[in-house]
Amino acid sequence: MSEMRIENSKYQKPKRFFSPVGVFLGFILGLAVALFIAWYLLPVEPVDVAPWQLRESDRIPYMIGIALAYADDGDLDRAISRLVNLRLPGDPIQAMADAACQLTSSGFVNSTSGLRAVRAMVSFYAPQGRTSCADVLIRALPDSTQVVQVVLPTNTPTLTPAATKTATPESAVLATQTPISVALPTAQNTSQFETIAVNTLCSAAESGQIQVLVYELNGSTGIPGQPIRVRWNDGESRFFTGLKPELGPGYADFQMSESEEYIVDMPGLSDPVSTALSAVPCVDPITGELAITSYRVIFRSSF
Questions:
Q1: Domain stop point among 140, 157, 180
Q2: Which domain holds residue 205?
Q3: Would 38 be classed as within a structural domain?
Q4: How far is 249 from 243, CA to CA, in rounded Å?
Q5: Neighbours of 258 (CB within 10 A)
Q6: pTM (2 decimals)?
Q7: Which run of H or E residues covers position 49?
Q8: How many angstroms separate the Cα of 233 from the Cα of each of 149, 182, 260, 261, 278?
Q9: Is residue 89 helix, strand or coil?
Q10: Tens-place pLDDT, residues 155-168
Q11: In the chain, N or C terminus with fewer CB closer than 10 Å?
């Protein structure tokens, strides 16, 4: 009888409501599924990021945009306000100077657009009494003027020599002309950038936008701080790439008005886009909503 009780006790042990191993494996599986959904299926897209929320790598392109905008409109208060909104540690204007030094030392100025950007930064912080290594390094780079030597006639009055039977040699006349060094501005290349593509899209979420992308010669590296001009019948607007770094350093956009036509170019750097961009109605092929046609204009550096 006692033997029967011992055998039955094997089957009378209290059952566990959960298995530690099963809980652990379930947690790992759930975490893996959640990460897959968050990273690949439904990734978070940053929208309307405040300047101070930018990543460290995106702050310098934003500062380039500030400096180039200041070079274009001369609005010091607006430039300083934009710089303060980055919430940089220490003196924000000195931070601009330090960024210019970093760019100059890294080879960023090897391109025409990079050189122009750093010079704009120097022009912003130097009058405010800030300095950086860019002040010295930038002087060693090619300037926009070329010194040439030309021969101009002197205005020194001379006495008329007495008449002689021997004609004055031509070399004696040339001797009265003095070579003078004159600095002539180098002609600006108006085709530093070329239009690569103008694509249309219809999206209710991006209705009526002109989206501009500016790339280096390699076609994959975006260039911040580049001026974009949009003109229409009775007005124009200028803005710069890089002020929405969450969408890429070479990105900028403009909101169109319905039924208006627009001409896009990079003033002084490219020819205008060959055709006018018309803000005409369209239907979003995904949502079926009515929208205004948007355009994506791509510029690429010519060298």
A1: 140
A2: 193-301
A3: no
A4: 8
A5: 12
A6: 0.51
A7: none
A8: 46, 42, 8, 7, 12
A9: coil
A10: 444 444 555 555 54
A11: N
